[in-house]
Amino acid sequence: MVSFDDTFRRQLHELFVWRRDVRRFRTDPLPDGTIERLIEIACLSPSVGLSQPWRFVIVDDEARRRAVIDDFKACNADALRSYSGERAAKYAALKLSGLEEAPGHLAVFAEKTDRIGAGLGRVTMPETSEYSVVAAICSMWLAARAEGIGIGWVSILNPDRIHGVLEIPDSWKFIGYLCIGYPQTECDRPELEQAKWESRRGPDEFTIRR
Ligand SMILES: Cc1cc2c(cc1C)N(C[C@H](O)[C@H](O)[C@H](O)COP(=O)(O)O)c1[nH]c(=O)[nH]c(=O)c1N2
């Protein structure tokens, strides 16, 4: 039996508070095997029917990384055009990826056709395979933070282009692109809150009873 004491619980709470979406990375490399170890932890996550639909692509190739950065720039420019006035000015000032600086690039996909798990839990809700992959990313996000490593989730990308750049099978659905590295700073408040883009709200705003 394993049990967790108050000290651990307090520290775990601190981990939740201090996990951040990181966009500002130091460029020093991660120790060999770091991303592989984080993937190992991610694979301990819950998954529908124990289907383990997560698929990880460590992107080391310079040309592919550059193509992802170019795609981000194009998508971000499109996104900027969807805002006007003060919002547009604010959006333009945000830093929304650390793709250029982060030593680690990890693309994450959900395998949609694999028979692992024999379809259990997915018959009425096939999207639960994507949910399982998101759960895996969250585990990795927290585990990384516990080691002082930052992760930034980038979704300002065109999934079809990412598929092409990385030569990914059609049955894999793109879930997210993660930048991984040492953060320049640490903070207990989301960067979007510091930039006055949005503020974090309390649980009362999101909870109802029936
Ligand atoms: C599915 C998904 C997709 C994205 C994000 C998150 C998630 C869950 N986030 C990070 C997001 O902005 C961040 O989590 C919130 O602002 C809250 O900040 P903390 O994560 O608490 O630091 C994010 N951030 C960013 O700068 N560029 C991006 O493309 C995305 N995309």
Automatic annotation (TrEMBL):
Top enzyme class, one word, equals oxidoreductase
Which Pfam family is one of this chain's hits?
Nitroreductase
Molecular function, one GO term: oxidoreductase activity, acting on paired donors, with incorporation or reduction of molecular oxygen
Q: What is its EC number?
A: 1.13.11.79
Can you tell which superkingdom this protein's organism belongs to? Answer: Bacteria
**Family from the record:** Belongs to the BluB family.
> Do you know which NCBIfam families this protein is assigned to?
BluB
| Quaternary organization | Homooctamer.
Q: What is this protein called?
A: 5,6-dimethylbenzimidazole synthase
Gene for this chain: bluB
